[in-house]
């Protein structure tokens, strides 16, 4: 016999009859009429080729075959019930889930320390794994659940995705404290005269800032290019280079590396840092918990 030969709703009736041993009581507990339960029992008898329950002075007594079925049916129903309940709840305090979040290295610098502190308090068994915003694969990874959440300026993710704004970033110039640029206002002419380190970060808000200066015809003397922000503080501390960086990065780096942030002479528009997730996981409890935590920790709203 195959499962498609049996209406699985009948197993709910079977399980209730095993518990109550009376058609009338089972009907009441299931919210059905007594004839409906009797009809369900009749259908089960026909499909399974067994009486299943025999009427006696003490109620409906199960046959040996029904007793053989009772435990597997109960186990299957409890397993299904647990699965359905887990789909509607997520307990961060008892979970050991690893969340994978796509973000840039500057996102790691600004967001991860505070996020890890929150995990230590609220979800001590959970972990975080970060990956880079590779737009080519990110779409598929968010869709199949390999990546839970993306953070950044990622305009390429549109159809099929939700997004929520976290914060806005604007740009400053960063240099060492004794840099000549700190001795007088940083005009555009002086900005272009100094040598620069540039972070090459295509498809990010920082990449848009570089693209804007290129479109405006602003020519900088680029002496060094690096693929990430991690070494910028060390580099500026020991050179006369300038760097165009988000203000939050500058704020977190100044004291540690002995740097100074200066107003940027180019009117670079602010860019928005968003959370993005695929519509498939919009109602997933674990995903919703992570998104709400991120919003509570970092949103400027």
Automatic annotation (TrEMBL):
One Pfam match, given by its short name, reads LysR_substrate
List each copy of the HTH lysR-type domain by range. Answer: 6-63
* The organism's place on the tree of life at top rank: Bacteria
Q: Name one GO molecular function term.
A: DNA-binding transcription factor activity
Q: Which PROSITE patterns match?
A: HTH_LYSR
Q: Tell me which UniProt keywords the record has, alphabetically.
A: DNA-binding, Transcription, Transcription regulation
Q: Which InterPro entries match?
A: LysR-type_TF, LysR_HTH_N, LysR_subst-bd, WH-like_DNA-bd_sf, WH_DNA-bd_sf
Is Transcription regulation one of the keywords? yes
Query: Where are the membrane-spanning stretches?
Result: none
Q: What family is this protein classified in?
A: Belongs to the LysR transcriptional regulatory family.
Name this polypeptide is given: PCP degradation transcriptional activation protein
**Organism the protein comes from:** Pseudomonas fluorescens
Cite the source lineage. Bacteria, Pseudomonadati, Pseudomonadota, Gammaproteobacteria, Pseudomonadales
